Amino acid sequence: MKKTKLPVEAEIVFGSPEPRVSVAISRDVKAGRLKRIAPKLYTSNLKDAPSSIIQRNLYVILGHYFPGAVVSHRSALEGGPARGNTLFLTYKYTKKVALPGVTVGLLKGKGAVEGDMPFMGKLFMASRARALLENIAPARARTGVAKGWSRKEIEDYLDEIDRVHGDAELNRLRDQARKLARTLKLTAEFKALDAMIGAILGTRADKKLTSAKARARARGIPYDAHRLEIFTTLYGALQREVLPLRPEPPLTAQGLQHLAFFEAYFSNYIEGTEFVVEEAADIVFRNKPIPQRPADAHDIQGTYRLVSNSQEMGRVPSSAENLIELLKSRHAILLAGRPDKGPGRFKETVNRAGETVFVAPDLVAGTLHKGFELYRALEDPLAKAMFMMFLIAEVHPFTDGNGRIARIMLNAELVHGHRCRIIIPTVYREDYLLALRALTRQGNTVPYIRMLSRAQEFTSRVEFNDYEAALTTLRQANAFLDPSEGKLVMPKEGGVA
Known about the structure:
It holds the Pfam family Fic. Keywords: ATP-binding, Nucleotide-binding. ATP binds at residues 400-407. Residues 322-454 form the Fido domain. The chain has 21 helices and eleven strands. The protein is of the alpha+beta class. The protein folds into three domains: 1-47, no CATH class; 151-218, no CATH class; 225-476, Fido-like domain (Fic-like fold, Orthogonal Bundle). The longest helix is centred in the middle third of the chain and has 18 residues, at 167-184. The strands form three sheets. Strands 6-7-5-4-9-8 form a six-stranded mixed β-sheet. It has a three-stranded antiparallel β-sheet with strand order 1-3-2, covered by helices on one side. The termini are far apart.
């Protein structure tokens, strides 16, 4: 009798009721060409761990074991195995199946219905509407992972859908779920889902919502939860930090003008409005027009107009609403020369810097509200200043001018607290941006706090009452150099670098 040969190149081989195949498998197992890794499941891979082999062939294996099963409940929303490597399938019966590296929770229920999609050959993936109904169903796990999400997780998920895709998508999901509820016999679950969606959309009372994000959206002030985590991290670091006390220097009226000029000059240079310092002085002190660059000249003048006004710079927000008013009024002055940038108006489209995507337009107000709650809990003026600047820089509420307005808000806190202002010279630009990036992407607060503290120390050592002396000190400190051309040199006490 001719021997049956198995496809040795296949990593997994399924057991078969066909005698010839069964004999061939037994022969190859005895010869060491195959090994058994699960019931009626063999592999030709004799090196890798069974859990690794099953993991990369998981859906092919499950399709063979349970053809027609639907990836459902939390597994459908999570796109695969949940915590503890548990995958839930709706099938003909209820059973827990343990395979190396994964537990399969079979749940008796209806097979594929309208909206479910074919998945990896012999399986189906539950539609989002079906998965939401299944996740709302009561789910208690005495051991292991529950088949459904918590109410808060579902509300957070619905809030995220609304944030990204808008109200229309939630309404579409609700309509789809309404049709499926009868077929799946989940009418009670649909009522709960309907109430959640209605509350988030603001068409019903939000008293039953448990998610802070969803409640905020229902009240019309949704916020960026990821950013709030970063703000909370910074708040904790600033609350623990013992920051240096550098009082505001005794400046004459002219000294204040000089300080404000250099603050405005460097703040604009960082953002790409590049003038030779003498040109900028002509614009600010002598109102000299620059016909080729009128908008850039307006940028420097607008910044100077704000930071040279002691009364304006002494104002700090007393409430979240006041913070928003303050931001808009200052931005209107800052970008008065650029009407195309929407001076005084929050952005209407998402903005980004490199790989960093800032807060979505509809989350700006709510995120500022949440950030203000942390800001007002800080006491030290420098801590409040550091927090305020990062809050504005990270939310990026405007189409343009966000960096400048963030630094204006930083120094307003310091002026109000009678502390030395902070100037970010051109040569320090990379240190400044890298510190912001480390906090944004890794939640690392140390470089940010250290960077601003050093910049304040630098500013405190420049004698601004004498314009020429200040200019000399700044030049000796490499302040006007590009970061690729040198490093910041800390002036000695008295203004000599």
